[in-house]
User: Fold these one by one.
Assistant:
Number 1:
Amino acid sequence: MRVVDLIEAKRDRGQMDPDAIRAVIAAYSRDAVPDYQMAALLMAIYLNGMSPAELAPWTDAMLRSGQVLDLGHIAGVKVDKHSTGGVGDKISLPLAPLVAACGVPVPMVSGRGLGHTGGTLDKLESIPGFRTDQTVERFVELVGTLGLGLIGQTAEIAPADKRLYALRDVTGTVASIPLIASSIMSKKLAEGIDALVLDVKVGTGAFMRTIDDARTLAETMVAIGQKMGKKVVALLTDMNQPLGRTVGNALEVRESIDILRGEGPADTTALTLELARTMLSLGGKDPAEAERALKDGRGLERFRQIIEAQGGDPRVVDDPDRLPTATREVVLEAPRDGYVGAIDTTAVGVAGVCLGAGRAKKEDAIDPAVGLTIEARLGDRVAKGQPLVRVHHADRGVDDALARLRAAYRIDDAPPTVGPLVIDRIG
Ligand code: URA
């Protein structure tokens, strides 16, 4: 196989040969295809898409780039959740322990920040000592004993996605329906689940900007999962403003603790419970248990246990000030009286990346402490000078971040119509 033939076929809107697809993914996984050729192929796919006849071997090759876990010896229906990516989307952190505390095992393999969106692994690693690079054996043991494990792709689990994900992050090739669908489904199908809940984000901060595109992505992923014999449900949820009140890794861990304490913002608490109920019903349990486990502190206790089991400092749960904290702060103020009429949520995410909460290049290090506190939400009435966003920084990228945030907030004379958080359910 010549990789350049595949690139040219896709560039010219032709069909890629299934065997060539399998070969290129396998070769890239063992470092036998250079990043520049893979980047060109990804861009051709981004621009020209993939047919179902191409997507099936592409996803299958990514899934088979590593091992497919067998969790059959662990009792219960194993259920995971995955989000297509948003700004301030920390839901996996409170959700996984909450669902595990209700008796449904959650084997969770997550990703890092991608483009303007944050990643579960980066958030977890802002907890001092927390290791997401557990061995597969330890991961399986954690799912068996605590009912959950929180890891990233390893050399064993969908390693092709690990490499492609990092390359897409820095080559402008993230927001592609076939690339997102194959990325998510390859790692989810490799982790030994029986059922999956997908949170497909739509809006100004999502990779899918329209409900039609989000629906197509959801249907594509549900179809891939069902073909593999899994129960898959997708929720389409709103991403026209940051989720919750924080953006940035340690800040989002703080908010996750608040959610599990029953003191979280209304939207992140509601979405955590909605996704938990869906996971519990797929797992054959009473969905109402989710709210009970939040109220009686079982979810928080399980979070403390998994932090400790994965090497982190469990004291952060009672004393979040132990998390990395940025010492400097500037405030973006409302330029005039009015209502928050629209938020360019991608620009808010990029502002976080400028501060160091995400990566601009593959090898960039994250600053776990920096980020944003969202002080004004869509539809809020604001007076001139009132805080819109609090910027927690370490003297890096502040002017750039402030300029982006200023441009991201539109203040109108009349209040906007704000849609529901959960827009639709598929599957
Ligand atoms: N989440 C993933 O795991 N992969 C993508 O491509 C996008 C979001």
Note: The radius of gyration is 21 Å.
Number 2:
Amino acid sequence: MHDFSITQDQSPDILYGDLISAARALTDDEPDAIANMANISALIWQYIPDLNWAGFYRVVDDELVLGPFQGKSACIRIAMGKGVCGAAAATNRVQRVADVHAFPGHIACDADSRSELIVPVCKNGKVIAVLDLDSPLPDRFSLADEKGMTDLIAAIANNLG
Ligand code: SME
């Protein structure tokens, strides 16, 4: 239904620029947060290489609950502050982890995961969810990925909660 012309072998600026335009087009007229998280997970899964998991955890009653995602089935509930996702949500700071085995308290939903990028989703100054990207490659996520994903989430956060 949607056909975006996004080429993966481009500079991060162009790739993330295209991805953000596509994310806006998918979510701009849609207020349903779950539908939007589902489409954004699928978009990232399709266009960002070397991922084994891409999706969202939502903050519900001060804990993280599994939301829409692509990849293997995953842990359903994560306490605030626990694991990489819980750390991102509790501190409202991006977590870019080059080696998950070196992260104290990392929660191994998929034993294949070697590196992770977690971006908090904020609305009205509150963390309402996190975007969780996992890779089977060590040190998969660059500073450009962190910036690109942070910009993407900021562009569409109003329609994610
Ligand atoms: N590894 C994450 C848990 C979520 S799964 O990887 C999908 C963490 O430590 O928070």
Note: The mean pLDDT is 95.
Number 3:
Amino acid sequence: MTSTLTTTPAGDGFRMPAEFEPHAGCWMLWPERPDNWREGAVRAQRAFCAVAAAIAQFEPVSVGASAAQYEFARAQLPAAVRVIELSSNDAWMRDVGPTFVVNDRGERRGVDWRFNAWGGLESGLYFPWDADDLVARKVLEIEGCDRYRAPFVMEGGAVHVDGEGTALVTEQCLLRGNRNPGAARADIEAGLCAYLGVRTVIWLGEGVCNDETDGHIDNLACFVRPGVIALTWADDPRDAQAMISRDALARLMAARDARGRRFEVHKLPSPGPLTMTASEARGVQSRTGTQPRRAGRRLAASYVNFYIANGGVVVPLLDERTDRTALVRLRRLFPGRKVVGVPGREILLGGGNIHCITQQVPAPARPPRG
Ligand code: KQY
């Protein structure tokens, strides 16, 4: 049986490991809502299958699907992928799944953040979100992990860690006030330190242009290893992304991580700008309570939204003009891993990408001998 703990991970000696540390596996959810995924979600389902298959080359993958979609999902996904009946309101496992934490005695637990669909009734993306808010708890039961129920709203895509005490976040997302009204920067930092076991929080400004999550960090920048960061970059000064990325770079160059290191920052090209076509927008059903999809709207496309697996990196392919450069740079950044590109446009049309639809389960740390 698993328990809900009333202490905090940091207080109990737990920390969130970095994504580049070894994994026991990966969790995803099966997309189906027709008011977010065009054409009844069939194209997104194909894209999710390709992502699951790519990750399954490197580590075990589990996919949660609704009762209505279970049989179809099981038939579409590779046999090596475990499919489990699991309700959710959409398919963003990064944000609704647990954030796993480990200690140095080989124990693993999970943080179950409160979830309000990226902004609640004021500015969230859909209503209701009650099934999403139960996903982390269910995954933790299946994984046999004790649970910390965080007393504040957070999403997994809103934070990256280096596993050595540093967290990376954006002001646009965490200071907007639609997650935790009234919470000041210091309150948020205290929450991240207590629930992720970090000591230093580095604040970037805005996230990627038009990111409907209010600028999640996982679309803008991420750790490649401790002290090394990949940052989405636009050269064209007429592109609004150029100023956002320049500001992020300046902040990163001025920052020090929890161990006092300066950062080495590597730029990944920004695709596009890409926009939603009229036929793509027409394929999404409109529904009261869900944000509408409009033709011509700029998509929050980013190669930084990749997933690091055991021995692999799974990267969204987004634009023929920039895909090759992104892959070449990522291969240089991850010399010990196989970098695999998977078509990402259908996932992007739903508002995120490969990192947003995945959640790693870290391998328990090896307890010290003796
Ligand atoms: O990027 C994410 N982490 C989630 C995107 C949610 C989009 C909902 N339409």
Note: The chain has one domain: 4-362.
